[in-house]
């Protein structure tokens, strides 16, 4: 897998340097960074701007690329072993997914599960970049990529069997009062796409439906922004 940009490459350099197989440079880098790259004892190749633009698909690459080992996606068993999860249902924008991974890692969420869509290698590269490298450190499960192709409702049943408390993001407040998450209690937050939201069948499976009260006659938030707000509120017991 190819990653690019200083923030992503530096994150891998600091947290998983063994996964770096090759370095590509289209610009000069400072001496300190170049010395660190040389210590990896992997090929460092110079590439022209045309090649760099191709590898980055026209995005800002800052002249620094790395070829790393393929990402190892988490399986369902690994996801169920976590204490907390973000479950994305039909969220397809790779930028949003990457930002949610980054936010989840920063706030201490155990993992992210993607339902109802598959992600190509190119899409995973984009998720990695949007996550600023956090995808390397956070269990990340794509249900559609597994041989069993587990559907969302079956996964919900497994979460319930594993004693997860389920929260769904929606525009209707739950009739049940939110009392916060007890220490040691496992929980999962379900988020739908911005245009459709969570399917009614999914919402019906939730223990609580939670929402963000909006002001100024505005009723839309980016899903990654909503994720950060709701996770913080769950952890603080402020819903």
Automatic annotation (TrEMBL):
CDD domains: SpoU-like_rRNA-MTase. Residues 2-74 form the RNA 2-O ribose methyltransferase substrate binding domain. Gene3D superfamilies: 3.30.1330.30, 3.40.1280.10. One of its GO terms (biological process) is methylation. GO terms for cellular component: cytosol. It holds the Pfam family SpoU_sub_bind. GO terms for molecular function: RNA binding; RNA methyltransferase activity. InterPro entries: Alpha/beta_knot_MTases (IPR029028), Ribosomal_eL30-like_sf (IPR029064), rRNA_MeTrfase_TrmH (IPR004441), SpoU_MeTrfase (IPR001537), SpoU_subst-bd (IPR013123), tRNA_m1G_MTases_N (IPR029026). It comes from the Bacteria. SMART domains: SpoU_sub_bind. Keywords: Methyltransferase, Transferase. This is 23S rRNA (Guanosine(2251)-2'-O)-methyltransferase RlmB. It comes from Helicobacter saguini. The lineage of its organism: Bacteria, Pseudomonadati, Campylobacterota, Epsilonproteobacteria, Campylobacterales. The gene is rlmB.
